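Final paragraph of the annual report: two paired records, presented back to back.
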Amino acid sequence: MPRSDLSKAFTLLKRLFSLKIVKIITASTIIIAILPLIIFYFLRPKVQPDINYGITFSNKYASELHMDWQQSYLKMLDDLKVKNIRLIAYWDDIEKVKGIYDYTDITWQLNEAEKRNINVIMTIGYKVPRYPECFAPKWWLEDESEQSRNEALYKYISMSVSILKDYNSIKMWQVENEPFFPFGECLDIKKKTLDQEIATVRKLDARPILVQDSGEGGFWFPSYRAGDKLGISMYRKIWYNFWGAFLGNFIYFQYPLAHWSYKIKADLVHVPYQDIIVTELQAEPWGPGINSTLSEEEKNKSMSRTDFIDTLNYAQKAGFKDLYLWGAEWWLWEKEYNNNPYFWDTAKALFN
């Protein structure tokens, strides 16, 4: 390009950038480009130096794996040596007949936890962990009156807290599980119903209340505002249909979320990071059937040995203080029935 033409080009550019609208567009473009870096710098998570590891235990799931659930539970306490555990009171077992309550299974679990000074998150309600997610008595589901069902639910909540509150091992209550997230074979839980359940617990006991939400798909703030602590799930690879979006076809799917996205989401929705507990950190397969029936190839699609370690590293980098692993019953099944102690032994090293 001739020198005169080059000079003209620079003159035109100079005039162009002297225009106010061009200055505004240029400045806006630069800000938009660097804003994510600024947000990441100030909101990025920091790895916690002393993470509190725990597990969720489901006596129903242990039984579904054809294991003695009591012996399985004791092995988790005495061999894994977990110090933090989330336990579940299953309403359909406790009140099989309306007005007749049997807390034998959950009080046995709490007694064993009490002997070992283990910290317990006590989960109560209609929607609680493990598929199909909701565990109401048959008589309750057959009741067509919403008011009557709610009265029975509140009475069950009141009875549960009254019976269990003397256990010092219980450090907080979890009321319902993902009540605002549409997953499972459940009747919808209305906000006013959840609020009344929580109010019932508060009248009887002063310990903090945790409400669970989906870490990947939930809005978080409504659940957090309902209680004192927010519990979230953290899943990496799942087998799911996403509410019919794939025309009834289930697929394996990996959430495209970076470890730092949880911290940024918490700040954006105004939930203090220190008030969030990862109550369901995926540490078992999620496939087309109960895990004891899946082939090695199928299990490895969502939870291989590499996935197990990668998920732990991912959760640690996410900066949470409390991580409760999901799948301890399956680790034990792998060890005792599939001659594969890898998951059990790896978790054991983590807890010890």
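The closing record of the year follows.
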Amino acid sequence: MPLTVRGYVRAGGRFSGGTFASAMTAFSRARQTRAAAHERRGIEGRSERVRVEDPGRPHRALERWAVPMPTVDPQVIGRSAHADAALYGPDFSYGHYALVKRLPIALGGTAGLLSLVAAAQVSPLRKALLARVPQGEGPSDAQMAKGWFSVRVVGEGGGRRVVGEVRGGDPGYRETSRMLADATLCLAFDDLPACAGQVTTAQAMGPALRTRLQQSGITFSLLPT
């Protein structure tokens, strides 16, 4: 049975200079990243049952506009699906998007991201942009208190449609540090799946990490469809 899952991200808050520097560095290494991924697929083999969607153009979803996100999330989820056929099924695809209210914002966001990716390839431009948002700068406590994030996950297969949501506070600092701390505790103390090597979070920790995140205040819920 084919299963199609799409993640739609919304967030409010400010990013830090360190986050911006990490993103620009990742953008600047796109060619090396593709080469490493190609080499790895040559060793591990390509899965015919797992697909990562070509994000394409902005489109309507969940009463908003969905904008492609140039992040590693789809590849990480694809690797988890490749490793666990019993959980993800014999025919699985995933797409990852940001949600915005208006089409001009969607088009502007896409153009802005493409411009950053292009600028990251040119060393003088990359250095100039990094100088404008120095590392070590970030949002205040008051700004972080207002921060939030939401990921709507829409799964379709076998004639059914299920919508889930993961929701939490400030995504740039507070929830990132919470996730890191919970993952560390999970690895140290919980009964985890047997695995080794370079694996994804889902492979390494599975439901145990979700339980810890829920206890820390991040919510996982099913929504009406």
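Residues 2-223 form one domain. This concludes the annual technical report; the extension proposal builds directly on these records.
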